[in-house]
Amino acid sequence: MTCFPNPISKLLGAGLTVAVCTGAFFLVARSLGPIPVYMNQITTNKYGTFDVTGTSSVTTTPDKASFSVGVSFNESTAKSAQEKADKAIASITKEYLDMGIEKKDIKTINYSLYPNYDYSNGSRATNGYSVNATLQVSVTDFALLNTAIDKATAIGANQINAVQFSLSDTKRKEVEKEARELAVADAKDRAESLAGTAGIRLGKVMNIIETNLSFPRPMYEMAKVMTASEDSSVQTQVEPGTTTVNMSIMLSYETK
After folding, report:
1. In terms of C-beta density within 10 A (0-12 exposed, 13-18 middle, 19 or more buried), how is residue 218 classed?
2. 231 Rama sector, left if φ>0, alpha if ψ -120 to 50, beta otherwise
3. Which residues have C-beta within 8 Å of that of residue 102, sequence separation ≥ 6?
4. Are the C-beta atoms of 152 and 139 separated by less than 8 Å?
5. 3-state SS, one letter per residue, for 105-145
6. Mapped to the 3 state alphabet, what secondary structure does the chain carry?
7. Measured between alpha carbons, how far is 152 from 54 in angstroms, rounded to an integer?
8. So what's the pLDDT on residue 64?
9. Which residues of 10-24 are buried (b: 16+ CB within 10 A; e: fewer)?
10. What is the pTM (predicted TM-score) of this model?
11. Which domains are delineated in the chain?
């Protein structure tokens, strides 16, 4: 095979020599190194996925209640106001302990003592002292709830705030587990029904996502409590009612 120098080499410079050979055409890179080659890469999955969402709702009765009970007094001196409040709080606490409420479920959440001022004469003058003391009480035995509220007002409590119903940690986990199992079962039923209708063959579950877990906010009962505190002859009746927990689960199936 015979090759002849080509004058194009002079135009391309010393870095590239072009030779024309009989039956072939060669480009020889002397000093530029390898010539890069660019290409697009496309990745495909062997299997597609089929996603479906299942939902569930579980209705249950709250097993925990908490309420706050307090006292508020206005006295001529700070000492007398404090002594009166301390005595009332001590009496309420003792009554609750005697009822069977555990000490860990009774805690002070507020204690404030401050002077009152009179500005009627154009200047500020101290006009006695006020004290506010509040206990937060939690119970899981609802038979104690109404009695605890009534006993507090009988002893001297003059502040009863809303009763809050909620789920204890143990029951919350139980309800969450039940809701999750129901949502997964619903998702499986939906997947089988939809795939069968569409003629899709499902494989194994590739992924599971808990897309929504909705616990309701604590429920409050106030009107009945306030009525009982205003009229000691009326027995407090507070009922927990029910609460609903919602769950959504998404399953991703392999398709064949």
Report:
1. middle
2. beta
3. none
4. no
5. HEEEEEEEEEEEEECCCCCCEEEEEEEEEEEEEEECCHHHH
6. CCEEECCHHHHHCCCEEEEEECCEEEEEECCCCCCCCCCCCCCCCCCCEEEEEEEEEEEECCCEEEEEEEEEEEECCHHHHHHHHHHHHHHHHHHHHHHCCCHHHEEEEEEEEEEEEECCCCCCEEEEEEEEEEEEEEECCHHHHHHHHHHHHHHCCCEECCEEEECCHHHHHHHHHHHHHHHHHHHHHHHHHHHHHHCCCEEEEEEEEEEEEECCCCEEECHHHHHHHHCCCCCCCCCCCCEEEEEEEEEEEEEC
7. 47
8. 92
9. eeeeeeebbeeeeee
10. 0.61
11. 1-31 (no CATH), 64-166 (3.30.70.2970)
Q: Say what the pLDDT of residue 30 is.
A: 42
Mean pLDDT by 10 residues, the chain (256 residues): 49 44 42 43 53 94 92 95 95 94 95 93 90 95 88 88 88 94 96 92 93 66 45 66 91 92
Question: Tokens 């507090």 — which residue?
Answer: 152
> 234 is written with which tokens?
């009326």
Give the separation between CA 70 and CA 85, rounded to whole angstroms: 9
Q: How far is CA 123 from the centre of its chain?
A: 51
Beta bridge partners of 138: 66
149 phi/psi in degrees, rounded to 5: -65, -45
Contact (CB, 8 A) for 67 and 149: yes
In the numeric block, which tokens belong to residue 214? Answer: 């909705």
